[in-house]
Amino acid sequence: MDSQNPENLIAQLRERLNEAESNRAELERENRELRQQVAALRGLADNLPCFLFQTKNKVDGSELEMPFVGNGITRFGYTPEQVYQRPELMIEMIHPDDRELYFAKADACLKDPSLPFAIDMRIVAPDQSVHWARVRSNAMRLSDDFLSYNGVCIDVTEEKEIEAALAESQSQLKLALTPPHVGVYFWDIPTNKVTITGKHFPVYGRQFEDDAMSLDDFFNAMHPEDRPRTKEVLKEILANQNTYEVNYRVIWPDGSIHHLSDRGVVIRNDKGQAVQFCGVCWDVTHLEQSRGELETKVVEASAEIDAMAARWQAMSDCSPDFLMTLDRNGRTQYINRTAAGVTREQVIGSPMIDFATPEDRDSILENLKATLERGEMKQWETSFPYEGGVLDLLVRCGPLILDGEIQGAVIASTDVSELRRTQRRLAHDEQLLRELWQLQEKERQLTALEIHDGFVQYVVGAQFALDAVRYRLQDEGHPALEDQAKGLEMLRSAIVEARRTISRLRPLVIDDDGLVEALRYLAAEEQDRYGFDATIDCEGKFEDLDPLLTGAMFRIVQEGVSNVRRHSGTSHADVAVRRKGDRLEIGINDRGKGFDLKKVSNERFGVRGIIERARLFGGSAKIDSSLGKGTRIFVQLPTLARQTELHALQQSMTQK
């Protein structure tokens, strides 16, 4: 065999070397692209209001591993490293009240891997704060013994809080608007006689011979299935409660079933024995029907959400947000979905600013510049035309950093249209409650004036007349002098009680001399009537405040002092009222026995009244107490800011 020419061999080796260098360069380029894509996806996941996860479960539930947990878990107070070290932490962080439901769903999914795992549950952070989480995931079989679940955990705390606030506001509004004359009754407990508001008791759908019926008539009209439960409730109320609330069904003569709701108070004698019920009941059948329809809609909506979650194939598709990544020039590199009439092809490669409305363009450019040039996290709200309407979007923009340099931006846009509509509805309900409260305060004021200018004046005149008669009887030594003196003393007591009634309705001194004098009058009345010492310290001017606001401040102090007197075991309280700029502060302190806040019932209307009054005026109330160390009530109220906010929300609601 002839020897190969060395020059040809060298040429071949050089050619192979060049080819290897070219392949290496291509592999390095592909590696850089993969690193950029991985960094983009991680940046995208970290900007979501959720975290992504992957689990490895043994089908019998005995083992759990966490191959992957996204950085988004930090919004719940934990880190991925903690979960990697202790996978069981994923179970421990679940609120104890939700674990039974979680295990039930987990067991069902392990038995049938075709079922999607879907649950709304609470997560307890290390600082004991509670977050609502919505978990959705699907299973993939790894072997006969192991399954892998890929899913997402979304923070829905704000959604749950708004739903609860709206439900509470609507409940208060419905109660406030209930006609007080419908179904009013008085049950005399010793005689079991029930006096009603007319011969035809509306909520019972039948006519009675007179304006009274026996307790047996009351229960005979009730649905048989509800009688035992209602009797047990009444028994408990008689034993240890002063207010009651009970729902039951009645059967009308035509056979129709109606749902009734009872509210009322229990009147007791000096020995604490219940002697009378004063209550009102009204037909809430339409509310029960609406509740059933709402529950059906909730079930249908939940099923739709579950079906949508089952179709999600990629991690980015788990988010309901509009997710985008931009390059350094603000051009769109990725988007998970688009609005109607806009295709992905139109968006990819185009500047994101091209899809902004003219009025938002300048502010969006400024925010993008701050992120792309300086790496700042920015957040703003904007609107976007969508399916014939307008979406309100909450936009969060963060830098995409690779190898220590800003390579672009990651944007998550959340649809907050329903949230804003809910806030506007909530503001409208609060305003309506304020107006009802204002009407009530006005009626209290008029009633107080009528008592002061009418009844009190007549009684004072009668007192003067009896004084004159007393002198004549005294001169004559008349035997009726003692009886006349008793009658005169009763008139004096009536005058004192009438003035106390005026004070409870609305102290006239508020309107005549202002808030400060009204508080001092309150302290003097507490000292005179109960021997209770309330020190009043006021700082600032309050003359220009809205009368409804000053009335609320007076009621808060009145309720706080009353609570201290009745429950603290001390005879002294310090009250401080301050005005600092556009903020009002009320502090009520005592050195009494204190109490455990966790054991206080929501039906303690004193505490709840303070909190609700503060909330209704856009403020807050904080109550700190510990056994043996006393109690501190601290209330903050705005002067004009809340009224301006409510007006702005109502205007925006009207426009939309």
UniProtKB/TrEMBL annotation:
Give the species this sequence originates from: Blastopirellula sediminis
Give the residues annotated as coiled coil: 3-47
Recorded protein name is histidine kinase
**Pfam families for this protein:** HATPase_c, HisKA_3, PAS_3, PAS_4
What residues does the PAC domain cover?
117-168, 244-296
Mind naming one GO cellular-component term on file for this protein? membrane
The reaction(s) this protein catalyses: ATP + protein L-histidine = ADP + protein N-phospho-L-histidine
Matching entries from InterPro entries are given as: HATPase_C_sf (IPR036890), HATPase_dom (IPR003594), PAC (IPR001610), PAS (IPR000014), PAS-assoc_C (IPR000700), PAS-like_dom_sf (IPR035965), PAS_4 (IPR013656), PAS_fold_3 (IPR013655)
